[in-house]
Design a protein that fits this description.
alpha/beta; seven-stranded parallel beta sheet
């Protein structure tokens, strides 16, 4: 378990999935948490006693107002995002705008407004996607937005280096979240459905929320002090092998 003792860490998308698992892990590792998301009750369920703020991170005015009252931070895990399928020609412009707002504009705004609240030698982790590394069919706007997020992590690593602030991106593949489980519930054989989806990578299974949370915790903690500007796939080897069974 990473040592996050005494750190104040902000987590977005903390009301479910990877964000919820990460927030709980960070707290167990000694951190104080500020949780952001769209649903206040879900945030409170994640970690009773943490500071919880309902916020649309794509809203510039709302982010600026939050930043004005935000305490000094040792780290941020900017995990919130959204997926909608579609091709370039087949997607309405509104879908493209939603994907940019949820997956790129939001993290950009948080880094823009909260950068001054980051303490020197702090760490920021952005949740990208392996779809932002390699193109997959019918995920055009999402993939483009996540690829931009990966570059944002690299740009910030350069811009913040003088202050000793690190910034990295992680790029998960398919993860067994509550949302994915719900998709399988209506199937005749949910276990077989999950197994089939897991075959998109060489390890042959879906990733777990805790596995992504543990990587984020490592990158936020002192044991990764010389890691910055990296985009790290966590996808069972799919990116490395360009696995062709999807």
């Amino acid at each position: 378990m990473a040592n996050l003792q005494g750190m104040t860490i902000l987590v977005t998308g903390a009301g479910s999935g990877i964000g919820r698992e990460a927030a709980r892990l960070f707290a167990q590792s000694g951190a104080s948490l500020i949780l952001l998301g769209r649903r206040l009750e879900a945030l409170r369920e994640t970690l009773p006693g943490a500071r919880c703020v309902a916020l649309d991170h794509g809203d510039a005015e709302a982010v600026a107002a939050f930043a004005a009252d935000c305490p000094a931070l040792h780290g941020m895990f900017l995990n919130a995002g959204q997926f909608e399928s579609g091709t370039v020609q087949g997607s309405p412009v509104a879908l493209f705008d939603r994907m940019l707002s949820a997956n790129l504009r939001g993290p950009w705004l948080l880094c823009h407004h909260l950068g001054p609240r980051l303490l020197d030698r702090s760490s920021v982790v952005l949740t990208g996607s392996n779809i932002g590394i390699r193109a997959l069919p019918n995920a055009a706007a999402y993939g483009v937005a996540k690829a931009g997020l990966h570059m944002l992590a690299q740009v910030l690593a350069v811009e913040w280096a003088a202050r000793g602030i690190r910034c990295n991106a992680i790029a998960p593949g398919p993860i067994l979240t509550e949302m994915v489980r719900a998709r399988f519930e209506g199937a005749a054989d949910p276990a077989a459905k999950a197994q089939k989806l897991g075959q998109v990578n060489p390890l042959g299974r879906l990733g777990l929320e805790i596995e992504v949370a543990q990587l984020a915790a490592h990158l936020l903690g002192p044991d990764s002090a010389w890691t910055t500007g990296a985009v790290i796939p966590i996808d069972g080897g799919a990116t490395a092998a360009f696995w062709g069974q999807a």
